Amino acid sequence: MMFSGKSNSLKRSFAGFTLLEVLVAMVIFGTTVTFLLRNINDQQRAHVDIGIKTVAHWVALNKIAEVRIEGKWPNTGVTRGEAEMRGRTWYWLQTVSKTTEKDLRQVEIEVRYDESDEHPATRFIGFVAKKSEKGEGSI
After folding, report:
1. Distance CA 82, CA 55 (A)
2. Which of 15, 21, 53, 136 is 20 to 30 A removed from 129 (C-alpha atoms)?
3. H or E segment at 63?
4. Which H helix or E strand runs over 125?
5. Are 54 and 39 spatial neighbours (Cβ–Cβ below 8 Å)?
6. Backbone dihedral region of 92: left (phi > 0), alpha (psi from -120 to 50 degrees) or beta?
7. In a domain, 44, yes or no
């Protein structure tokens, strides 16, 4: 091999990223991570809310069942109380009102997770029929 007086110019190639490319990648990565963390947080909050609403609905169903099982014609008005379920205290508000049918009462049960909550976790409306002489009962 012969070498001439001129050296072959070697092209230097760098295997790396420029500062701009690194910054753009970091912005994309940061945005993606932020979005994913927010999404996970929203899903966890929704899961907790569904659990609260489900148990609150069970409390309401139990309360309306108690009214029906009592077998007494409920007086109109508002009653408050507490119920234990799933290791915690739930606060219910029962409103009994007249309907257009004289032998039918509307019973509305609102259940709250915390007594000071402005909005109920659930609201359930049922009806109780006045027992006739034949012994027929609630709806």
Report:
1. 14
2. 53
3. helix 19-70
4. strand 122-129
5. no
6. beta
7. yes
- In the chain, the amino acid numbered 30 is G
Q: Hey, what are 135's tokens?
A: 């012994």
Tell me which residue has tokens 């029929």.
129
pLDDT value at position 139?
53
Residue 79 belongs to domain with CATH number:
3.30.1300.30
Domain residue limits at 97: 19-129
Give me the residue label for tokens 């508000």. Answer: 93
- Environment class of 38 (CB within 10 Å of its CB; exposed 0-12, middle 13-18, buried 19+): exposed
Q: Find out whether 120 and 111 touch, Cβ atoms under 8 Å.
A: yes
Tell me: the pLDDT tens digits for 101-126?
999 999 999 999 998 899 999 999 99
Q: Domain count of the chain?
A: 1
In a domain, 103, yes or no: yes
Dist. CA 135–CA 97, nearest whole Å: 23
- Give the HSE-up count for residue 36: Cα atoms under 13 Å, Cβ half-sphere: 6
Reported as a pLDDT band with limits 50, 70 and 90, residue 72 is confident
Q: Which of 125, 121, 122, 92 is nearest to 108 (CA)?
A: 125
